[in-house]
Give the backbone structure.
Amino acid sequence: MKWNITSPVDRQRFDPQDVFEAGVAQHHIANTAYPIGHITTMRPYKILRQQIDSFAPQAWEGIDELGLYVHIPFCETRCSFCEYTVVDPRENQSAEDSYFDLLLKEFEMYDQRLATSHKQLIGFDIGGGTPTVAKVENIARVIEAAHRHFILPSNETISIETTPKIAAREPQKIRALKSLGIGRISMGVQIIQPSLLKALGRTGSAVNLNFAARDHIREAGFQKFNVDLMYGFARQSLKAWGETLAHAIELGPDYVTLYRMRYKGTRVAAQASNVELAQVNEMSALAKEMLSAAGYEANPGKNTYSKIKGDVGTSDYLRDRVIHGTPYIGYGLGAQSLSHQTLAYNSGAAGKALKLYQQKVEAGQLPIQDLYYLSREAAMGKMISVSFYFGEMNLNSFEKKFGITLE
């Protein structure tokens, strides 16, 4: 498939200084996400709803290696800082089994249309939400489906996310996940400041829980253990951030991933104006100082710090997305997929409700809410933005993907 025709919007040229100043002014929005303003940036590339089911498979012809992301939209509670596709926690128990039934049908549909059983996975993430809220039997069903509908090499590391509360209170579940072949686990500590935890609706990150969770993860045999931390909150002091960093270091994970608070689409979006860029930069600098002193390495601008030499610290799925712009398919409510020429969002990405996703899957339709047929410039924008998760661009990968040098 060729690139789409470039829209007039993408032919515009802007002074780099103006672009930089706009980014500074909108610093709480500017990040590795792309696109941000869908209506402005992507409308010219949108495929009509009635054409999606026939058009989408064409973009995957000739793609023999790809990443897989499976979205589990369940959490015990919905945190105020969350922007992700998570259903009402009151639906968890009643919706779980039927949701996994739908996921397995989505695996089958894509195999029928794309012959995915002949395509090799070079990364596999199970994310959310909090996927470990689900029963182990359902997680096992997803992993079995991945083996059945893709080529999944034994040396590929499956990655999953958990909370301290689950890892601390359900050690048997953590052991079971390891026995399923999952090799990397990421635990969302985020912050330890009690008053801020309470204000954000985060109830499961008490210090004692974090240590118990760490012990259970290590006892289960996980040798790739990541801790997620967040900074840039309106009510977060530099002192409190330093205490969170010190606590994370004491937990002794193999990796620490830093997420700057992104206010867009959250329940606390109105607080964005209370966060100064200088405050955020100060927190970032403190993290670099403390983590580097503790033996964690990351090149400038990189989000994930690793204590293992030669290991970038992220999941295999994210590593190849960032470095090489590798295509990936997302299954589940609101999941995102990216081929070389198309960007798609599954049903539920906007409304965070299961109904439309369920209706499409049960009707035998690909559960895609929005599909964009990209120009080369739009695809470049996607790869460049995501690459800054590592704080750098891989020039060889860029030239190979687009047939033109970055310069």
Remarks:
- The radius of gyration is 21 Å.
- Residues 185-309 form a domain with the Transcription Regulator spoIIAA fold (CATH 3.30.750.200).
